[in-house]
Design brief:
Strand content: 15-25%
Radius of gyration: 37 Å
Number of strands: 40
Largest sheet: 7 strands, antiparallel
Oligomer: single chain
Number of helices: 24
Structural class: alpha+beta
């Protein structure tokens, strides 16, 4: 039997065995820290080192408990400014000590030895780095940093390395990869799991440990079916890998929830099949249980190593903005015993439940403000106040409180920042679009998908602005898809984490820059929702009929014929499909290949792409807009009021929440009724009254029927009461659209202003639109050529004022002049004339 020699690494203290003493004097790399060293004979002092270490550790523990006593004896921290008096006294003492325990845990870990790499730190407003796929970032970043030193091969000696004081895997390729992961957290220490580590985490509760740690498992086996499918996806393997990764991550999440692992934070699982990594948040003490649950499940198509890497996450800190936060949760499930008590005695049962929930939250959630909990059991809603912005997995912490009788849904109804009047300051912010979470799903190509992708960006951003961010000013969101910027307004100055909150929102795929490009006072609103704002004129340059494409330059007569044929149906193609389009405002000039329509906003930079993406619009418009004009619109003269009565028949549950019903009804009205004036809805649930405003010009019977049917689908019984016509005295367009400033409402309709009679006149022509390509002065002169009664010596054009002036020497033919102006592509013309004195010697 060969004699073995115990060897100790002088760098990290790890011990291993060599088969013979022949290894003495050789240079090898430590299997744990990879640092090369020369093997020397063990010293006699090494035998007594372990008892000394044990004694030192016991002394350190004694010192720690002494330090804890000092901390407990110290006075409590000063309250925040503007906080209600007595709040600190109301708080649960254990919640106030949470930071102390986190600090103690860090010290204990360092003293424990072997796990000194794990540390807890603070400095971020959110503990959820996993939403950015931390596991993938770790590997990517690690590959760019300094590589682990290569392991030196011993000369003429075969080493049988046996790990004694560590639970790490044997030295080799796998260990190198784990070392890369550990080296990527830059000042955020990482360490593998070990038995020693689980003992030294005793100062943290499972919930606190789960918030503070990310467990990164190496995937050791992938299902053969998944591997085969990925190998066949030659065209877009990245997309296929992402899809499988998300699908398997969802399965893992469901399995771990069913396994009821107390500390696992639901929804934190992420997988990267390319890098063979799986990450999630849980208490490191549950690491083996998590791995077993994954590996034993048939539904999960991957298997992971038993030992994960542990990443210390940043702990949340107070926002520092002296705010409290009001959060509304929907109660998903109520314990059966309480349900029966509440049914038997609703008032007393609800009171007891509120007291019990207040007690549980005070004990388990340090940021919860005691006595602020309110219950609306009819709507199944629970409202709480916090001292800081809620992290993403607050619901999981609530649901896993022992003996708590409720279960809440993951996404809160609303998150409100409670601001004082002094903290309100309307501000406009502009962010740069950095990209999208799923770039491959956003093509933004001209075609029928362009408006769909565009709408997804808007709806994705609207969710955090209306549900996560407090103080968003309604209808102020604007996305510039050419310059790639996002603009919106708040009723306060933006906080430092505004972009982070928007980017991490579950329904938003748009990634904004970390800091705004610009902040400042609100600018003039760019839109008047539901009401006319601008008239836009665009030129048709191509017509498409089924599979045939005809270009105007090659066959303009055929394009004109198709345009005239489609003119009567053109409004229906734009209604509801072009964002901001004013119903029945579109006009067509087939001869000039022009279309004009009204919007409720200034034209967006990508308007031509939006128009060209309309499904039933068989034409293409030029990228350059021909003209944009202001329109006149008088709401009092152009809008009617419609009144209804209603009864809410919703069953018990969140769908009878009044704010929920108002929001859903507003969305239905905007989507279904093109003449509805947004934000005009008034619903009084106590009186059962329902009032809205509509632009005139539509089919009123159809509008009434639409409202009754759609509210019936929401279990709201509606009854029509009356319609009050417009009460203003101004002039209104019969279709309820705007009128172009200083001209008729039509695009190509001329009108006469004040016309004097006689031969000698001064004529002023004001034109609203010139759609030609030639010089304006030359086109205007061409329109007057051939009229003998025009004195061409007095002809002038003022392009800034859009005016043409000349004098006459004979009777003026107004209809003929109007026709010639149209022929030269002058539209929306107003002709005025005033009498001039007759020259001397002229015939009377």
């Amino acid at each position: 039997m060969s004699e073995t020699t115990v060897i100790e690494c002088p760098n990290c203290g790890a011990t291993f065995k060599a088969k013979s003493k022949a290894a003495l004097g050789k240079k090898v790399a430590c299997p744990k820290c990879q640092v090369p060293f020369v093997i020397s004979a063990p010293s006699s002092s090494s035998k007594s080192k372990k008892p000394q270490q044990a004694a030192a550790q016991q002394d350190a523990w004694d010192d720690l408990w002494d330090e804890e006593d000092d901390l407990e004896a110290s006075p409590p921290p000063r309250e925040k400014a503007n906080r209600p008096r007595g709040r600190s006294a109301k708080r649960n003492p254990s919640s106030g000590d949470s930071l102390k325990w986190i600090g103690l845990a860090a010290i204990v870990v360092i003293v424990g030895g072997g796990i000194g790499l794990i540390a807890l730190s603070s400095g971020s407003s959110s503990s959820q780095k996993s939403t950015d796929n931390l596991a993938s970032k770790l590997m990517t970043k690690g590959q760019s940093e300094e590589k682990t030193p290569e392991k030196a091969e011993p000369d003429n000696a075969v080493m049988d390395v046996v790990q004694v004081n560590t639970a790490e895997p044997k030295a080799g390729a796998e260990q190198k990869d784990q070392a890369v992961i550990a080296s990527t957290t830059s000042e955020k220490p990482v360490a593998p799991m070990s038995e020693k580590e689980t003992l030294d985490q005793r100062s943290l509760t499972p919930a606190q440990a789960a918030e503070a740690h990310l467990l990164v498992y190496r995937i050791v086996k992938v299902d053969a079916g998944v591997t085969s499918s990925l190998s066949k996806a030659t065209r877009n393997q990245k997309l296929a890998s992402d899809m499988f990764s998300r699908g398997i991550a969802n399965t893992v999440d469901q399995e771990l929830q069913q396994a009821k692992i107390p500390s696992y934070l639901s929804g934190t699982t992420q997988i990267d099949l390319e890098k063979k990594l799986l990450s999630l948040q849980a208490d490191p003490q549950s690491a083996k249980q998590v791995a077993d649950s994954i590996n034993k499940s048939v539904a999960i198509k991957v298997q992971v190593a038993d030992t994960p890497e542990v990443v210390a996450l940043e702990q949340p800190v107070d926002e520092g903005d002296e705010l409290d936060y009001k959060i509304d949760f929907e109660i998903k499930q109520l314990e059966e015993s309480f349900s029966k008590q509440i049914t038997a005695n609703p008032t007393a049962g609800a009171s007891v439940l509120a007291q019990l929930l207040n007690h549980h939250l005070s004990q388990a959630i340090p940021e919860y403000i005691p006595e602020t909990l309110k219950l609306d059991l009819e709507s199944r809603k629970m409202t709480v106040h916090l001292t800081r912005y809620p992290e993403m997995f607050l619901y999981s912490r609530i649901n896993k409180i022992p003996s708590i009788p409720v279960n809440v849904i993951p996404i809160p109804y609303t998150i409100r920042e409670l601001r004082t009047p002094d903290q309100l300051k309307p501000t406009q912010v502009i962010f740069k679009i950095e990209g999208f979470k799923h770039d491959h799903t956003y093509r933004f190509e001209e075609g029928h998908s362009y408006n769909f992708d565009r709408g997804r960006v808007y709806s994705g951003l609207m969710f955090p602005l209306t549900n996560v961010i407090t103080g968003y000013i309604s209808d102020s969101l604007d996305v510039n898809f050419v310059e790639k910027t996002v603009t919106f307004q708040l009723d306060h100055e933006p906080g430092r984490n505004l972009s982070k909150r928007i980017n991490e929102s579950v329904f938003n795929d748009t990634l904004l820059s970390d800091q705004p490009l610009k902040t400042g006072p609100p600018e003039t609103p760019f839109r008047t929702p539901g009401r006319p704002n601008k008239l836009v004129v665009m030129r048709i340059n191509e017509a498409r009929e089924f599979s045939k494409s005809i270009f105007s330059d090659l066959n303009p007569d055929e394009v004109k014929r198709l345009l005239a044929k489609e003119a009567s149906r053109m409004n229906s193609y734009f209604n509801g499909d072009l964002s901001g389009f004013i119903a029945d405002s579109l006009e067509v000039d087939p001869q000039q290949l022009l279309i004009a329509f009204q919007l409720d906003r200034t034209p967006p930079a990508d308007l031509s792409k939006m128009v060209n993406s309309l499904f039933f619009f068989h034409f293409r418009v030029a990228d350059e807009i021909v003209a944009v004009h202001d329109v006149q619109y008088d709401p009092e003269s152009s809008e009617k009021s419609m009144s209804f009565r209603f009864v809410n028949h919703n069953a018990i549950g969140p769908h009878i929440d009044r704010d929920y019903i108002r929001g859903k009804t507003e969305g239905v009205l905007r989507y279904m009724l093109h003449r509805y004036v947004p934000n005009s809805l008034q619903m009084d649930f106590d009186q059962g009254t329902f009032d809205i405003k509509m632009r005139i010009g539509g089919n009123e019977q159809s509008e009434i029927q639409t409202i009754l049917e759609w509210q019936g689908k929401n279990k709201i019984d509606m009854t029509y009461v009356k319609t009050v016509p417009p009460q203003g005295k101004g002039k209104a367009h019969p279709l309820g659209i705007g009128m172009v400033t200083e001209s008729g409402a039509g695009m190509a309709v001329g009108s006469s202003g004040k016309l004097a009679t006689g031969k000698y006149l001064k004529v002023t022509i004001q034109y609203g639109l010139y759609a030609g390509k030639l010089n304006i002065v030359r086109s205007a002169r061409s329109a007057l050529d051939g009229f003998s009664w025009v004195d061409l010596k007095t002809f002038q054009v003022d392009e800034a004022k859009k005016e043409i002036t000349f004098e006459t020497t004979g009777e003026m033919n107004v209809p003929a002049l109007d026709r010639l102006l149209k022929r030269q592509k002058f539209y929306q013309c107003v002709i005025n004339s005033e009498a001039l004195p007759e020259p001397e010697g002229s015939e009377k």
